[in-house]
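To close the section, here is one more complete example, presented without commentary so you can practise reading it yourself. The ligand is fructose -6-phosphate.
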Amino acid sequence: IHNVCVNSSSEGSLIVAKEIADLIKEKQNAKTRCVLGLATGSSPIKVYEELVRMHKEENLSFANVVTFNLDEYYPMDKNNMQSYFYFMHEHLFNHVDILPENINIPDGSVNSEDLYQYCIDYEMKIKSLGGLDFQLLGIGRTGHIGFNEPGSHLNSGTRSITLDHITRVDAAPSFLGIDNVPRKAITMGVGTVRSAKRIVLLGWGISKADVLKKTIEEEITSQVPATYLQNHKNTTFVLDIGASSELT
Ligand code: F6R
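Output:
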């Protein structure tokens, strides 16, 4: 892992948005698609804000971009304001020229009987497009990336998972109480994430300092799934002062 420490999440977000925009343009010039793995939550909001600004003010086009979101609650209806589908449209997709057919977000409304095959198909679709060129990540206090909670395997693929209690506690405010937070989710696997050619993880604020110390400085363990990024060849953690405060 390569660490970049920045003074603020705003500063870090601009750097990351610039990298994504440069990749999109590079692929445009090569007349190929750009396959992006995207995250939701508070961490990437300013990255999306900057990408929208670049689209509006600098003509950055998303016409060649295909996206795969990391995860979605299960069960979850698209129209629900707590859905990651809603989040992505609100923060990015509604404001840029991405083709609707190029947007992939795990569908929280598939029948439970179809879920297993649905996840396999999601994984296959990523592969069939040549894999993820870039994966954007946040990190949960459990050490999850996507919703790969403690216990997740190194080579796990897209699948349904039971959310950790701490993850549900952290999501409770936006659901107006923990009882409303879904118990499950669909997530890309650790293997899916690690297959990306480039990974950037965003860490903002002191609440992430402890898990980031474990992730970066302690041994690789399924108990902190983000540690699986340690031996990925092209991963950068972009951290603000609070998030990097426990690092030696
Ligand atoms: C979201 C995701 C999660 C979040 C993590 C951090 O798609 O996959 O791993 O990145 O829970 O959430 P925030 O950014 O809200 O602190």
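Once you have examined the tokens, check your reading against these statements. The chain has a mean pLDDT of 98. The beta strands are 2-5, 34-38, 65-69, 71-74, 103-104, 134-137, 159-162, 184-187, 199-203, 235-239.
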